[in-house]
Amino acid sequence: MKTLQGATIIPSSAIQHNGNVSFVYVIEDNTALMRNVQPGGTEGNNTEVTGINPGDVVADSSFDKLQDKRRSSVAKAQRQAAPEPGEMAP
Question: What pTM was estimated for this model as a whole?
Fold first, then answer.
């Protein structure tokens, strides 16, 4: 297995597609912001991406209710232990 240094890893299910464009909804101050991402390597249910910052909160469900730059209520999510920087989660 190759260890990625400085990689941003998110759940693969958070990545949405519109034609050839991949994007995620980043949630900031209860507002959904659409951000284009470039998916990289995938392992299990996680994908390395560029285009967002480590620590950004991404939506992983209810995409039909999200719109770019619109306020959105955020449910408390179960937190999972984050992998070390550059490592894929099990």
Answer: 0.76
